Amino acid sequence: MRSPSATSKSISVSAGLRSASRARCSGARDGDSMARLILAGAAAGTRVAAGACAATWPSTSSAAEANVSRSSERMRLSFRFSWGCLSSTSSVARRLPANQGAYHAPMTWRIRAASAAMLCAAAQGSAQAPQPGFADALLGRWDLTIEAADGAYPSWLEVRLRTETELMGRFVGRVGSVRYVSDIDFAGDRVTLRVPVQYERDIDALRFEGTVRGDRIEGTTLAADGAAVRFTATRAPALTPASRARWRAASPLTNGRDLKGWRPRSEQHPGCWRVQGGVLAATPPCVDLVTDATFRDFRLHAELKFPPGSNSGVYLRGRYEVQIQDDAGKALDPLRMGGVYGFVAPSAAAARAAGEWQTLDVELVGRHVTVVLNGTTIVSAQEIPGITGGALDSDESAPGPIMLQGDHGPIEFRNLTIAPAR
Question: Which domain holds residue 92?
Answer without folding.
Answer: 11-128
